[in-house]
Structure formats: structure tokens, C-alpha cells
Amino acid sequence: MTIRTGEPDNAVRAHGLDLKLLQPWPGLEAPFRGAWCILRPGDVSEAHAHHERELFIALSGRAEVVCNGRRHALAAGDIALMRAATEHFVVNEHDEDFSYYAIWWGRSMSEDFLAHELRHEGGETDGADSTT
Fold first, then answer.
1. pTM attached to this predicted model
2. How many helices (H) and strands (E) are present in the chain, helices listed first?
3. Are 48 and 21 in contact (CB under 8 A)?
4. d(CA 95, CA 32)
5. In this structure, what DSSP letter does residue 107 have?
6. How many Cβ atoms sit within 10 Å of the Cβ of residue 66?
7. Fewest C-beta atoms under 10 Å: which of 45, 75, 117, 128?
8. Quick check: 72 and 89 in contact, CB under 8 A?
9. Going by DSSP bridges, is the β-strand pair 33-39/98-105 parallel, antiparallel, or unpaired?
């Protein structure tokens, strides 16, 4: 087992919010990508759309997700799914941080993952037990 601790403590400012990407993580091959995301009060993430589907898992606080021009409230314990090609961004107009984990995936990520697995079939390990 490998555990990474303090993910939010290692966030960097990008795209209008603080984030910590899941990758690179040596030894982790996955058919998805992810990021720990924190919007401070007043933050607005950059509007974007992409080929992948994206899932937001709200961990703390409240915010609004704007998808194709429509606002949707999101609070701790909620999950939001954006389909591919959906323009979206997140707005925090509240007086506390909004934290969520974003996971995105698409066909090319799955194909890359499967190709990697086929090349390394039979030699998989979960790495040395550690905390980082």
C-alpha cells in the first residue's frame, strides 16, 4: 500500500483555484486522472470543456457549478457529473473554502491504460509500502 498524505497542503495555484494533481505518482497506472481542488472564497475556476467525462466529489463547503450557462448548487457530500464537451466552471461566492476531488476519464486514457497493462501483464506490483 502507498499513502500520500497532506494533499491539500501541497496544492498549487492554477486555473483559478488551488489544486494537487493525482499524477505523477510513481507506480500508479490508471485509466483516469484526478485532482484535489480547493476554491477559496471569491474564486472562480477557468471555464473549459474537454473530451473526457468529469466527476466532482464535494468534500467540504459550498459552491456553484456552472454547466453550459446553468448554475447548480454543490455542497459537501454531493457528486456532480459533467458529460464530455460540457463547458463548465466552479464559483465560490461563500465565506468558506470549497474542496472537491475531480476525476476525469475518456477513451484515450482507457486505451493507454490497457496498452500499458498488456505490455506489463504478469509483472504488476503495488510498490513498496510507504507513506509520502
1. 0.85
2. 1, 11
3. no
4. 32
5. H
6. 17
7. 128
8. no
9. antiparallel
